[in-house]
Amino acid sequence: MIPNWIEQRAGLTPKRVALTFNKQQWTFEELSQQSKYYVQVLTDAGITTGQRVAIYGKSTPQLVKIIFACMQLQVEMVLLNLRLSKPELQYQLEDAAVHAILIDDDLVEGLPNTTTPQLKFSLFEQSVTEGTVIQRWNRETTMTIMYTSGTTNLPKGVRQTVGNHLASATSSLYNTGLVEDEAWICTVPIFHISGFSMLCKCILHGVRLDLYEKYDVESVAQQLIEGTATRMSAVAIMLEKIISHIEKSGKKASPRFQLILGGGGPIPEDYLKRAHAIGIRVAQTYGMTETSSQTATLSSEDALRKLGSAGKALMFNEIKIDGATQAGEHGEICVRGEHVTPGYIGRHAHIPTTVDGWLHTGDIGYMDEEGYLYVADRRSDLIISGGENIYPAEIENVLLGHPAVLGAGVCAVANDVWGQRPIAFIVKKKDVTSEELAVYCKEHLAKYKIPDAFYFIEELPRNGAGKLMRRKLHAYIEI
Amino acid sequence: MIPNWIEQRAGLTPKRVALTFNKQQWTFEELSQQSKYYVQVLTDAGITTGQRVAIYGKSTPQLVKIIFACMQLQVEMVLLNLRLSKPELQYQLEDAAVHAILIDDDLVEGLPNTTTPQLKFSLFEQSVTEGTVIQRWNRETTMTIMYTSGTTNLPKGVRQTVGNHLASATSSLYNTGLVEDEAWICTVPIFHISGFSMLCKCILHGVRLDLYEKYDVESVAQQLIEGTATRMSAVAIMLEKIISHIEKSGKKASPRFQLILGGGGPIPEDYLKRAHAIGIRVAQTYGMTETSSQTATLSSEDALRKLGSAGKALMFNEIKIDGATQAGEHGEICVRGEHVTPGYIGRHAHIPTTVDGWLHTGDIGYMDEEGYLYVADRRSDLIISGGENIYPAEIENVLLGHPAVLGAGVCAVANDVWGQRPIAFIVKKKDVTSEELAVYCKEHLAKYKIPDAFYFIEELPRNGAGKLMRRKLHAYIEI
Prior knowledge:
2 copies of one chain form a homodimer.
Chain A: E1 2-3, H1 5-12, E2 17-21, E3 24-27, H2 28-44, E4 52-56, H3 61-73, E5 76-79, H4 86-96, E6 100-103, E7 118-120, H5 121-125, E8 136-137, E9 142-148, E10 156-161, H6 162-176, E11 183-186, H7 193-206, E12 208-211, H8 217-226, E13 231-234, H9 236-249, E14 259-262, H10 269-277, E15 282-288, E16 293-297, E17 309-313, E18 318-322, E19 331-336, E20 354-355, E21 358-367, E22 373-377, E23 383-385, E24 388-390, H11 392-400, E25 405-415, E26 419-428, H12 434-444, E27 454-456, H13 474-478
Parallel strand pairs in A: 2-12, 4-5, 4-6, 5-9, 6-7, 11-12, 11-13, 13-14, 14-15, 26-27
Antiparallel strand pairs in A: 1-8, 2-3, 9-10, 15-16, 16-17, 17-22, 18-19, 19-21, 20-21, 21-22, 23-24, 25-26
Helix pairs in contact in A: 1-2, 2-3, 6-7, 8-9
């Protein structure tokens, strides 16, 4: 059991600024106060500790307070990805069996039809009564649930406990330290672990979060130049935009600015060198939803010397390469530590997540002789596009639902802007066009998952057991 | 289970300087390597994981490596106070039933006669074979044992687990952060929790420890002026010496120097003001052996506004005033958190340490309306002299062993240099002089515990139940 983070933080540094958004700001005391008002709304709606709600909201202070209120009451939060299609949302809501959906007033149209009670964000703002909060939290309690696909075609709801988030924030603190007037720029979605972990750091480390609803490269670049913030997380495409912007301005990042954590796939060498030239330190990380953010991080000092590496496991984390007996040997990357999820919910609740404490990530990699991790091949042919994970099986599953499709195989192609993009190979049952398939996909999938191209072929490459060999699909494009 | 701190740290920052002593220095990789050689010596001597050894050594790099070796093998360490008399050491060695005594070659004369095997430090230096280390540590495992007296007259061996030390280092990190090129000056004894906790921070936080065998005010002051270190812990008397030295030099502390943690009793107002004037930030702390160092800390910003306060509980710690229903009300200070000892060893092993997780410290204090802790009265008439705890009962017990003493009562008097000093009140059975009693005490007690004065009186103040009322002893001096 540990003390309620929000109350403890508000007690320690009440007047410190916790959050900024546009030109507004909130102290820790204010966030604590307002989240307690919000708790009363949850309680009035019959939501009690240990129950589960879904949250569907843009990255705004309102969302932060809603999340804080759920923490205060120790209610499990299913964080819905705003980019998902209605059928995808429907699946998650059903699988998670939530008691209520807390929804941004502006986004009501985005939800599928559901009988689940909905609480609009505006309702919370009317409360002026403090609800009763949970003063001590159990490390084992599930705090958040985020859906990710993995090897099956049905997304799995990953549990992240109080202890998981705490372990992640603590490892990060041991890794990067904490400077005076620390402030994180948050432009990544809060419904992803990258964004949510920043919210946790804000409370736990007592640092300011500069929240952006949308990625605003101009403002972010300005913050780096002026040194009004100290850290941020970014995927490659965001990083490139910042670099270009600062390069054009002829300026450099302030030495007050500490670090960009680069996640969601590898950062190209060219970006690292250009970042270095304008005074931006970049640390490549390796993490995933199942590990509540970072497991390993390459220090910025090693960024160029160990190009392509994701660094070393943080202080309390462990990494091993399954089956490898020496440096350089490839194998499945396995992760152990208190940041690793205890399991899934819903229909996947029975699937064990770890073996002897080790999470088998499905990613293939190796360690060099100095113990630096290199991720060679992503799990289950995972495609990473602009920081979003795309699982081929999920797209194939949708395509196979189309009456004209007999077989479908999806793989990645390199893309200058997004890193990777999915393309599809189709074996037809009857006549159909690429356009028709794209429209069909759009009805069932988040926009970023729709393949950039559809290739019609005679037969899919399969192994002896009939298993689709996605890696062989590339051969068809080269023809 | 968590990864072996030393190996994890050596893997993360192998080339970083971990320790300096006089003009020498050692990296984390070197300390890891050498401590593994030392492990082989322990193993050769038949000492195995889970067994208990006593350590009797000066604050030298050798001592650090010995301690690291014991950590590597997960051997319990009883850290012997170098100031104790032979009978006091004898008691601790017997109570702890140690398998061996690891002893500084220079200090062999200081040990009482014992049949316990002794391993001299010089023996360790000859090893060139790596021993087998424990790769994963259990949070519940006892790492250190330190004796403290408390309310009984027999000192109790307090267990501090891996998890206790980790929780303490983590709370401290959350509290003060970590700057670039962080380095702690260690002039306090490693056998006390104040020094040992710095060793833990060194490994866990990856910061340099500038170790001093003896308190050298000139060198320390110079480090503050030049900013070659960032933090230190000090008791009032040490702080005053640093301040005086810097004042005389006409200089100021470098802004690179971050903070002095002031422990072992309150820091006088005058010292705080003078420290402030020469650019030294001082944070008053409240901690004890049973809490593996700090529980609460007053931030340096609040140092003058909340004069006399020990601040607020650190991020994962809790403090309550037993029985108090409102701010300002006095009561027993109770502490909860993962830094609290799970219990004692030896003859006190059966005594429970916490009630519902709360350690009842015996100290009396109150919280103000903003939640700041004030320690009003130390536990069991505890006397704090130059940072060392002195328990009146222990001295009275020795005095009562003298054939001429019928009754004895010990209490504190204020002292400009040491903060407090003990004085004794004696009811004689037959003729005896102050000098004779002082000589007798010297045979049985550490030098700092010998009363500064002996007053001969007719009768001791006792309550109805016959219990000695030490607080009434002061009245006799005023006569």
